[in-house]
Amino acid sequence: TDIGSQKDRVVTEEEWLQKWEMGNIGFHKEQVHPLLQKYLDVLLSGKSGLRIFFPLCGKAVEMKWLADMGHSVVGVEVSEQALKEFFSEHSLPYCEEPVPEISGAKKLQSTSGNISLYCCSIYDLSSSIVGKFDGVWDRGALVAVNPCDRQRYVSLMITLMEKSSSYLLVTVSYDPNKHEGPPFYVPESEIKSLF
Ligand code: SAH
């Protein structure tokens, strides 16, 4: 009768890695999201050379799309497979390096230098490691964060934003009693209180 059944549910990092291994990635889309196209001006406000952050990036094609416009893109994703698929599917050469501040983390960077993807948990990042961003594209990210981690996620995102930055957030409106995902229901009232 309420979203109570979802509140305590947790999707572990291991489960996400398995989804990638099994090819169970129905969330991945081959086309640039129509809402990004629609609200692109809100994200960029006519500026060029912005730094755009993709939390929980998967292999989102929008990263390539924005990089091709001359922006620099930073993403974070726990699945190394996802990041490697991103570079190979776009035929982008890249190099790998460790991230000294985060044990076990790697940074995969396009040779052209304008796409840097961190392979680690988003909770390992801070503005001292990745800097601050002019824009955020949050699609399949807040809605994939475990409900118990939402406040932590949002607080972190705020620390990664420049004062003048824009945050585009995509959520899905549905009856959480009738549908299981994607993967969590975040009501609008909660978005307002979180941010
Ligand atoms: N934003 C992408 C992917 C959405 S699915 C898109 O639009 O296609 C959510 C992604 O978050 C998955 O690829 C999963 O592996 C990744 N993920 C889950 N928890 C994470 C965490 N704590 N840190 C970084 N990535 C995470």
Topology of this structure?
Layout: H1 4-7, H2 13-22, H3 34-38, H4 40-44, E1 51-54, H5 62-68, E2 72-77, H6 80-89, E3 94-98, E4 106-110, E5 115-119, H7 127-130, E6 133-139, H8 150-159, E7 161-170, H9 188-194
Bound molecules: S-adenosyl-L-homocysteine.
S-adenosyl-L-homocysteine (SAH) binds next to α2 and β2.
Report on this model:
The protein has one domain (4-194): 3-Layer(aba) Sandwich (Rossmann fold). It has 195 residues and is of the alpha/beta class. Helices cover 32% and strands 22% of the residues. The chain is built from nine helices and seven strands; from the N terminus they run ααααβαβαβββαβαβα. The chain has a seven-stranded mixed beta sheet with strand order 3-4-5-2-1-6-7, with helices on both faces. The chain binds S-adenosyl-L-homocysteine. The site of S-adenosyl-L-homocysteine has 20 residues, from α2 and β2. Residues 13, 16, 27-28, 56-58, 60, 76-79, 82, 121-123, 139-141, 144 line the site of S-adenosyl-L-homocysteine (SAH). S-adenosyl-L-methionine binds at residues 16-27, 56, 77, 121-122, 139. One of its GO terms (cellular component) is cytoplasm. InterPro entries: SAM-dependent_MTases_sf, Thiopurine_S-MeTrfase, TPMT. It comes from Caloenas nicobarica.
Provide a compact summary of the structure.
The chain is of the alpha/beta class and 195 residues long.
Instruction: Please estimate the helix content.
Output: 25-40%
Q: Count the domains.
A: 1
Question: What oligomeric state do the depicted chains represent?
Answer: single chain
Which superfamily, in CATH terms, is the homologous superfamily?
Vaccinia Virus protein VP39
The ligands found in this model are:
S-adenosyl-L-homocysteine
Compute the gyration radius: what is it? 16 Å
Indicate the mean pLDDT: 95
Segments where pLDDT lies below 50 for 5+ residues? Answer: none
Series of secondary-structure elements, N-terminal to C-terminal: HHHHEHEHEEEHEHEH
User: Which CATH architecture would you pick?
Assistant: 3-Layer(aba) Sandwich
What is the number of E strands? 7
Strand content: 15-25%
What's the end-to-end separation, in Å?
A: 26 Å
- The shape is globular
